[in-house]
Amino acid sequence: MVKRVRSLLSLDFYRLLRTPIFYFMLLVSAAVPTLILLSGNFENAWEVVSQTASPFAASGGGYASISMIFIFAGILLSFFISHDFKSGFVKNIFTVHAKKQDYAVSKTVIGVFSSACMIVMYLIGTVVTGLITGKSFEVSIIGLLCCVLSKLALSVGFSALFTMINVFFRRQFGFGIAGAFVFGTGMLVMTAAAGLAGTAMEPLLQIFLYGSAVTANLSANVLDVFTSLVCSLAWAGVYTGVSNFILKHRDIA
Asked: Could you tell me the CA-to-CA distances from 133 to 45, 48, 137 in Å, in that order?
């Protein structure tokens, strides 16, 4: 399996690094914190990276944070996967790579790599704009590092989710984009949190469904990073399994 996935990854990385939309998303990732800092009332530049506490408890910031890269990664995967099916290129892929799960794994890795690149660009945009506008950079270095690592860990689950969505919709590019916005903003999770608040399910949700995401803030610690990684890998396994099922039971044409 490792050999098959490595071969497919080589192909996907070759295509990704020659795809203009990838570099466009990197520029967008750098521009977003610039726009937020210039248009918002922020004293500290790191406020556009994340909040200092759970968004359920903190005011300000909202979705104006580095979590926006999940949406950008989802849009990129929508372009990538829909092109495979619309062009018929996916048939060539499955001719060489007999295992359908290789496709889902490879696209998830591409999503994580793209997310990592976007995170770097987002941080660069934050630092450059913060310096130009004279913002404060006072922050807990450990908290900032753990926040960024938690976001990177969460990108595994998000990338697997967006891969599953786009594999399901295939050529319906618009639905893939819509899925990136709906799930990337966490609207469904927030709805579940509100609906199940105070129930017996809430403690489980705090950790497994949305707790791992909301603890990825500037107050994060090593345990939060570990929690985010475990939850993200668990969800990635579920989403990859569903993607594999879809690819096996639906015509790829």
From this structure: 9, 14, 11
